[in-house]
Design goal:
558 residues; alpha+beta; D-Maltodextrin-Binding Protein, domain 2; 45% helix; globular
């Protein structure tokens, strides 16, 4: 690990040389500037094509190519100084590691921020101050994504159970008081669905989001108010930190729940080898009746299924206390940065600045301006007729000098710059969500495509007694994590290897436990997992570090 410090010093020297010329207008390249993107939040790799590629070529004369960003590549790319031109980190620790290696450009050197990212400089100083605080040298090397400007609200409840409500209602709305009660409900729904449309499973899982642990088990913990914290969980309600190896803890309980489903044939057997994209298609086709995420459920709620009286709607157990976060002006752990060795720093800054502006956000969300959306005479955004056509059929060919289909063109960044629910700066109570715009709600398109969904939501409201998903969840109790300028520091380098080993053990043993053929086999695998993790030399130091950091966060929000 000492080599890392030597490398950092060398790269810091190289960075200084780059900075002397960075953001002092570089000569334009011959033709379009090809920029490489390293985004840790997406599984996509390859050249960006379609309408978004056309938009940014016309606007910035750039092209984008995503390089593979799986966890195994980060250290090597950082050491080699080959992360790319634009980097989007999945957490602060990787951001700090890249900073210390001299891999990122100082946003204030030669007035880069003021001159080439003026919108960010004017509107997001709170987020910039947060990333500044992450570095010992007090410099800005990036900006956090997922910023929200309306801090009196909280995030949506995206991690809660969704079920096939038409099947659930046909069963007579059986009570679900706790996690394990879902098992019989899922089984009965599968029986109904299979008799109606062939082979259907209970739930389809995936590995794409597994990092420090299994994402599906972390999702269950979230439903009980825990938030993933390093290699364990923090619960703000009890102000306690819990290791994933706690025998009566929430993580092992979640694994036991999934194993019970597996042994009853209620989990897609391909779950351990499939990606999020594949799982999305499972739900779009109606191949599963239970989901942990609203995003997967929304894929099922197509106009076709809604017209058939079918839908996936939330069903929360009586003892759940789902986690949500206070909307934050500081943003989240996702950080956008520019590489110190890029040949085109100005274009990188100009592109990122646009991505954080209303025009950029509306374009990345809905398509090319003037073709799929635009502003009216009062400066309010609206969807065009062609835009509605694209929203109805994402396979619509773009035309108008744009390449390929509407769906093909969407950018593959894995982190939003601003929360979709946040208000658009300069407009009175108008968010980025087009379904809340008056022009959308009053359109024939909305009546045709969402009128049926509103009726479905209305039936769900009658069944539950609540007029919105948020009010339904809030009534049963939820867990709010207040916004804070607190940022978790990198784990001490002496413990970093142990932390990676714990994460690897958690992911490997956990999937094996879910796929165990008997309860006895499950218990054996769990015992082996706990022994392997807890016997590691620095295990207690890793746990103590994250426990202490949880306490620091708690202090920051008091």
């Amino acid at each position: 690990m000492k080599i890392r410090h030597i490398t950092a010093a060398v790269m810091a020297f190289a960075f200084a040389a780059v900075s002397l010329s960075g953001c002092m207008k570089t000569p334009d390249p011959d033709g379009t500037a090809s920029l490489t993107v390293y985004d840790q939040n997406t599984s996509f790799s390859g050249e960006v094509t379609g309408w978004f590629a056309d938009v940014i070529k016309d606007k910035f004369d750039i092209s984008l190519t995503f390089k593979s960003a799986d966890s195994s590549t980060f250290a090597a790319y950082t050491e080699q100084g080959t992360l790319g031109d634009i980097i989007v980190f999945s957490n602060e620790n990787n951001y700090v590691t890249a900073c210390n290696a001299g891999a990122l450009l100082d946003w204030e050197y030669a007035d880069c921020l003021k001159n080439y990212a003026p919108y960010i400089n004017e509107h997001y100083q709170d987020s910039l101050s947060r990333t500044r605080s992450l570095n010992e040298n007090n410099k800005i090397y990036g900006i956090s994504g997922n910023i929200s400007l309306d801090t009196d609200k909280h995030s949506d409840f995206d991690i809660i159970p969704y079920v096939r409500w038409d099947l659930y209602s046909a069963l007579g709305y059986p009570s679900v008081n706790t996690l394990e009660d879902f098992e019989s409900v899922i089984s009965d729904m599968v029986s109904l669905a299979s008799s109606d449309s062939g082979n259907v499973t209970g739930i389809s899982l995936f590995t794409s989001w597994d990092n420090n642990m299994l994402a599906c088990a972390s999702a269950i913990a979230s439903m009980y108010g825990y938030t993933e914290w390093g290699t364990g969980f923090y619960n703000i309600n009890t102000d306690t930190y819990e290791s994933c190896t706690a025998k009566d803890g929430i993580y092992i309980r979640a694994l036991r729940f999934f194993n019970s489903l597996y042994r009853k044939g209620l989990i897609d057997k391909d779950s351990m080898s499939q990606t999020y994209d594949i799982t999305t298609k499972d739900y779009e086709k109606g191949n599963a009746v239970f989901s942990l995420y609203s995003t997967l459920a929304s894929g099922y709620n197509s106009a076709t299924h809604i017209a058939q009286g079918k839908s996936m709607m939330p069903l929360v157990a009586a003892d759940f206390k789902p986690e949500c976060s206070q909307n934050s002006i500081y943003g989240s752990q996702y950080i956008w940065s520019v590489a110190s060795n890029t040949k085109y720093p100005e274009r990188c800054f100009e592109f990122i600045d646009w991505m954080f502006s209303p025009d950029g956000i509306l374009t990345t969300t809905y398509g090319p301006q003037s073709l799929t959306w635009d502003y009216d005479s009062e400066g309010l955004p609206y969807i065009t007729d062609f835009g509605y056509e694209c929203l109805t059929n994402t396979s619509t060919l773009m035309g108008d000098n744009y390449d390929r289909t509407y769906l093909d063109g969407f950018p593959d960044f894995g982190c939003p710059t601003l929360s979709k629910s946040t208000l658009i700066a300069g407009l009175d109570n108008v968010s980025y969500n087009y379904l809340t715009w008056d022009t959308t709600i009053k359109s024939p398109w909305y009546d045709k495509n969402y009128g049926a969904y509103d009726n479905t939501l209305g039936q769900w409201s009658k069944d539950t007694g609540y007029d919105s998903i948020n009010s339904y969840v809030e009534a049963g109790g939820y867990t709010l994590y207040p916004a804070s300028s607190y940022t978790m520091p990198s784990i001490p380098i002496d413990y970093a290897l142990c932390k990676r080993e714990i994460a690897n053990d958690l992911c490997t043993y956990s999937w094996n436990a879910i796929y165990a053929g008997t309860e006895e086999e499950f218990n054996t695998i769990i015992d082996n997992m706990c022994t392997s993790i807890e016997s590691r030399t620095d295990y207690k130091s890793v746990i103590n570090f994250y426990s202490e950091q949880a306490s620091e966060y708690h202090k920051s929000v008091q």
